[in-house]
Amino acid sequence: MIEKTVVRNTANYMINREISWLHFNARVLQEAIDPSTPLIERIKFLGIFSNNRDEFFRVRVATLSRIVNAEKYGVKYKKDDPKDVLDEIKKIVIQQEKVFTETYYQIVKELANEGVYILNENELDEEQGEFVKRFYQETLRQYLFPVMLDDFRNITSIKDGSIYLAVKLKSSKKVLNNNYALVKIPQKSLSRFLILPEKAGNQYIVLMDDVIRYCLEDIFAIFGYDTFDAYTIKMTRDAELDIDDDISKSFLEKMSESIKQRKRGIPVRFVYDEEIPEKYLKKITGKLKISDEDRLRGGGRYHNFKDFMSFPKIGSEKLLYPSFPPLRHKDLLPNQSIIKILQEKDIMLHFPYQSFQYVIDLLREASIDPQVTDIKMTFYRAAKYSNVVNALVNAARNGKKVAVFLEIQARFDEEANIVLAGKLHDEGVKIIPTIPGYKVHSKLILIKRQEDGQSRYYANIGTGNFNEYTAKVYADDSLMTANQEIASEVDNVFRLFETRYTHPEFKTLIVSPFYTRNLFTNALNNEIRNVKAGKDAWAIIKINSLVDKKMVRKLYEASKAGVKLKLIIRGICVLVPGVKGLSENIEVISIVDRFLEHSRVFIFCNDNDNRYYIGSADWMPRNLDHRIEVVTPVYDKEIRKELWDMLQIQLKDNCKARISGEKYINRYRRINSKNKVRSQFEIYEYYKRKIGE
Fold this sequence. Notes:
Blueprint: E1 7-8, E2 14-15, H1 17-33, H2 39-71, H3 82-113, E3 116-119, H4 126-140, E4 147-148, E5 163-170, E6 179-184, E7 193-199, E8 202-207, H5 208-214, H6 216-220, E9 227-237, H7 251-262, E10 267-273, H8 278-288, E11 296-299, H9 338-344, E12 347-351, H10 357-368, E13 372-379, H11 387-397, E14 401-406, H12 414-426, E15 430-432, E16 439-440, E17 443-451, E18 454-462, E19 474-481, H13 484-498, E20 510-511, H14 516-532, E21 538-543, H15 549-561, E22 564-569, E23 586-591, E24 596-597, E25 601-604, E26 611-615, H16 621-625, E27 627-628, E28 630-633, H17 637-651, E29 657-659, E30 667-668, H18 679-690
Parallel strand pairs: 3-8, 10-11, 13-14, 14-15, 16-27, 19-24, 21-22, 22-23
Antiparallel strand pairs: 1-2, 4-6, 5-6, 5-9, 7-8, 9-10, 12-19, 13-17, 17-18, 18-19, 20-28, 21-25, 23-29, 25-26, 26-28, 29-30
């Protein structure tokens, strides 16, 4: 599936960021199409694609819609015409939806060939039907609360992201007038998938939607109805938070009220089964007060494919990825003090290839070490059941001074983080207040220890969240160090939080919004000077998103000067590589595979005295200018070699890397080589070799 590149503002050769994001999500959809991806993993990629798209509508489309509405009242927008962008989004989404639906039914067909059948309510045999009826009576019934459409009063009762069956109730004897009801499909309380008894070595699954369809008579028969038509509908709401400026309220109070308002956000999309009769659709949309054509979209029989991210692990092993158990780090042996090892050398962990348990072990050790006095940490998104949190609580119980900066403004995790803040506070952990207007996106742990009468600092600086769950699927790097030039400045970052934005001077760490843009701009300027002086000049940059136009122009300037630039960008990339006379020295690849590429790594030639950095900042205006991010230099030669090797493996990927150019997007990068290089698999093997396994 290759889409044409849409270049906006051709004088600057930049793709609109929303369109580029849709190109990224198309790469996710490609993984669902790719026959080299195991079948159940392919269906999970459909779930990831769907979940991504929902968030895109809730945030980006909602924002564009707000801008369009503001322009109606005379507010001018300087960038791409938002209405044109919305029109382009609609075209691409329609195209992608068609491919999505075709892919789903192709996967269903191929699963059946492997003895795994996804059945609908009309395909159940008598025995399976009895099993479904028993499940309804014993389990499902308690979660269903139908709403009669004629009695429906409040549109906010339709929950964002939930799916409903819109049911037409009829009497075959014509003794009752037709009636209409909405039935919410339970997704949080129950799995979306009901596994039926195995037969003759075959396995069977029915979606909860179809379980309800099969049992509609049990639900509505007491009212005299015996014939039913049911169609899925779903509403997506504007998820942007409007923060109250009432100075009499605490920030937590404002956030809590804003989260409640989000649940009543303006609808930005109404999706329905395109098989629904037009008359019935008009009745529903009229009742729900959905009138704007741009908000309506016909789709397939099933919605909320995000649930397919949790598709049951059934069938043969070949339907799933091969197991990649997290590897031990060669320098971190069992039953040894991590702090003592850090006194000798820096350690870098590479998730999910290596175990996240080392982070928990470090915190656990610090929580009981009598010489440790303080532990400080940033949280952006914590796991639901977090041993990281448990380690911090244990440290507080052991008398350590524990302070946590917990980012309340982390999108879609605001509510969970408010609850977590309360839990930590109750356990004696100091919660550092959020800085309104500035998200803290940096990933930091600081341990303060008394040694020989002096304070010595140990730090962990990462590219991803301290989250046990995401560490299994997000490819991130995390530096543990006792280098006092670095670790003492991590303490300064926490002082920045605690003094409410009175920032100290940083000589080693690069901290947004103060220094990050200048660091990268100056590094590229240095490469430009070197190439003009006839010296080697290049850079390798791995980030999630490239959106910042100033940085794109600087990359174009470097390319025109002759600097060789290799970019690995998973998500949005507004830069157009390979344009003659502008970006012909820029190569951009994007890798989408079993793990989510999430690390940020920067290597600059620097006249062959290479400089290495890792950190939390992408090249977006928000990361460079409006968030508190931390990028750290990497000094250890062995760690530098690991980072170099990893990036070289990725740059050689000829299985899952995609390339883009002036006239094409999302082409698989096929290098003329007999050897297949699937970088994530190769990197896992690379670390296995390091420990001799």
